Amino acid sequence: MEAASAVGAKPPKTSRWRENLRLYKKHKWLLLMLLPVMAWYVIFAYGPMYGIQLAFKDYNFAEGIWGSPWVGMKHFVYLFTSSPDFLNILKNTIVISFYHIIFGFPAPIILALLFNEIRVSIFKKVAQTISYLPHFLSWIVIGGILVTILSPTTGVVNHVLNLIGIDPIYFLGSETYFRFTLVLSGIWKEVGWGTIIYLAALAGIDQQMYEAAVIDGANRWKQTIHITIPTIMPVISILLILRVGGVLDAGFDQILTLYSPAVYSVADVIDTYVYRIGLQNFQFSLTTAVGLFKNVVGLMLVLFANYIIKKMGQEGIY
Amino acid sequence: MRLTRGEKAFQVVLILFISALSVTMLYPFLHVASISLSTPAEALRQGFHFYPKDVTFVAWERVLSSETVWRTMGNTVFRTVVGTVLTLVFLAIGAYPLSKKYLPHRNVFMTVIVITMFFGGGLIPTYMLIKGLGLINSLWVYVIPGLVSTFSLIVLRNFFMSIPEELEDSAKMDGANEFRILFTIVVPLSKPVLATLALWSAVGHWNAWFDAMLYMQDQSKIVLQLFLRRLVIANMGDPMLPVPSIEETPETVKAAIIIFTALPILLLYPFFQRYFVKGVMIGSLKG
Questions:
Q1: Coil, strand, or helix at residue B55?
Q2: Which of A15, A42, A45, B237 has the lowest CB atom count within 10 Å?
Q3: Is the pLDDT of residue A180 over 50?
């Protein structure tokens, strides 16, 4: 177990063995303690990676993973040239994620800034507690509620629209409105919870900076732009990196719960596609290829976003 | 605090806006709860539902007397309790060694663990692993594959690292080994953090349904959330359902079971939310 890939200097291999053995003996309880957890990681986190090779094989149920023939990049070529669905799936994934990022990322920041401005302490606490509520419930519970509320015939939202003279809208069933509903309900669910990190950062801002700004004649708005936001930029940057890194994720749980064949063309994303075509149509190899593609691109995006943000002067993830 | 007129006006507008937002967070539950206590005709009335016109408990009786509801609830409780306890144990025995600078090859272990946050096997390979391990149709499939959350592990490790060494040194001089130190000194000191991690794990288990859908063919072992999904999102299609549902579930019953599923969390979360908030703050310090 040489520390070949670890961070830090590489020790010379000779004469280290006896040292290492001594260390292992000295800390045997510690290593023993760690063993179950590492075993879990090997089996459940790295174990599935063995199956990734299916992306480069034609999975044959009888032969198993080991015996199935290699086909190289065949699946990837198929996905990008012949597959009727994949490019659309990719487009859906990216578009939906973009909406989530453009609208969903700033929302908690803005709400945190607003919460921060409330002077009535008890109202602030109560409002915050209420805002966390949707986060704790599953998309199934919320989906069930949404189906009731957004129903084109009996739903209360359409009732209100009716009163204003607008025709009933099939929020969950129409290709035009589905993505909007998706993003808006996603924001509704997570915006309150998302404020926590920002509020923690805001609490750490030095009050003296504000006092100095007031003396200089800055109103609250200017204070926000020139003090508050720049100070929480590091937090924003890191969260943005992680968000961008997850651009191909696009909210599987939510989409799987809310979508239906009627909206597949605009709502089917990579993960839902992998689930449907992979586990239901048993196209193991193809969907493993899709999954691998997603993973690799996601990783590259995280690294890329991290690089960009560092170039802009902020701290990255590493 | 002396506020200018403009600032006072802003406060009023702000409070109104946040109030409106809070109402949108609360009203949907009121709406559905009201429907669950309404007559079937009333339930289908389009419009606001603040309270049922004629209270009837028929829907709730049906939910509470359903064997499936209680069985799946039992499965959910099993996974939540057993899963959370085991997760806590594993997190503790994992984070403690990793928090010690003198752990041999500590960097290797950390790298191995952190990599899994960014790269994984994927749905299909994981499915094949679970199948290969014989966990399909076992209740343990809810507990074991999701045993360790890397994020929680790192949070706990960082916390352990912040515990002063002197506390452990005196125990070591008395001859205590690492296990004893962990369980008699470190863990009691970590109660708040452990509470947070426990709650994270518990909520995760309570709300989980996808693994049940994937790995459980034995319908007696599915979880409450999955059962709820089949009833309430049934028209969206659950292709894994072996038999198509013949009878359309009435709106009132759907509403009742939604509230039934959400109720534990609805009631408990205000008390536990400060643990969660603290946990996020501790976790966010890691960056």
A1: coil
A2: A15
A3: yes
B125–A291 C-beta distance less than 8 A: yes
Q: How far apart are CA A233 and CA A235, in angstroms?
A: 5
The CATH number of domain B66-285, selected from 1.20.1250.20, 3.30.70.3040, 1.10.3720.10, 1.10.10.10: 1.10.3720.10
C-alpha R_g of chain A: 25
Of A19-28, A144-153, A210-219, B21-30, highest mean pLDDT? B21-30
- Cβ-defined contact of A31 to B97 (cutoff 8 Å): yes
Cβ <8 Å between B144 and A44: yes
pLDDT confidence of residue A9:
62
- The tokens for A304 are 């890329």
If you measure CA to CA, which chain A residue comes closest to B122? A291
What number is the ipTM of this complex? 0.85
Structural domain spans, chain B: 22-56, 66-285
Q: What global pTM score does this model have?
A: 0.84
CA atoms within 13 A on the CB side of B12: 7
Write down the H helix ranges in chain B: 5-36, 40-43, 58-64, 67-98, 106-118, 123-132, 150-161, 165-173, 178-181, 187-189, 191-207, 210-215, 224-232, 251-285
Domains of chain A, start order: 16-56 (no CATH), 76-311 (1.10.3720.10)
Distance CA A128, CA A195 (A): 9
Nearest to A120 among B15, B148, B206 (CB): B15
Q: Using alpha carbons, list the distances in angstroms from residue B249 to A200, A242, B63, B233, B257.
A: 45, 41, 11, 11, 11
On the question of pLDDT at A169 being above 90, the answer is no
Quote the pLDDT of residue B112.
Answer: 92
* Alpha-carbon gap, residue B264 to A250, rounded angstroms: 29
CA proximity to A140, closest of A249, A250, A255, A248: A255
- Closest-CA distance, B47 to chain A, in angstroms, reads 5
Predicted confidence band of residue B222 (pLDDT cuts 50, 70, 90): very high
Distance CA B255, CA B266 (A): 15
What is the spatial distance between Cα B136 and Cα B77, in angstroms, rounded to a whole number? 19
